[in-house]
């Protein structure tokens, strides 16, 4: 997507309208169909959408492995990690409404014992646990977020993304993998820079177009291996 002011304004309007829609969901929730399965979201929760599909379709979990889903939202990535064979999934978010939605969806899909839902601002509530796989669908754009709903789409001063790459290594097993969602209207160059600065390689696995202006990506991020000594 080009970076013209008109395109930015179009994405701004679309995202603002989505944030308004997230807030007016009925109190008892709204059901969405996502990759053939149903998910319930409560008000103020980011809806299941095309943005995470390239990640979910590419996700591979070692049999019996562990997964940390950062910024879980309604829990769709975490639930699909359970379907992929994970023995333990920890889904974290800062939004109380998202935690309620994710908890409901874990139980509704029969993964109430496998999938733990926990409040955590990035890794603050994780402790010392390490994971085989870490998944993340963080806000794509460096734009000031005025409330917790806006924080699902916008990252003020790109702090969340920056802290993610600075801290993620502590929670990833030595040969672990990170699956990372992004978009053509997001700060992909900045994410690539953050990954490289913190010692990670980044490879595109899949992409899905939502319409003529919006395309979403799933990246595989891994620690860079040191060059062999000659």
UniProtKB/TrEMBL annotation:
Gene3D superfamilies: Vaccinia Virus protein VP39. It comes from the Bacteria. GO terms for molecular function: protein methyltransferase activity; S-adenosylmethionine-dependent methyltransferase activity. PANTHER family: METHYLTRANSFERASE N6AMT1. This is Methyltransferase. GO terms for cellular component: eRF1 methyltransferase complex. InterPro entries: Euk-Arch_PrmC-MTase (IPR052190), SAM-dependent_MTases_sf (IPR029063), Small_mtfrase_dom (IPR007848). CDD domains: AdoMet_MTases.
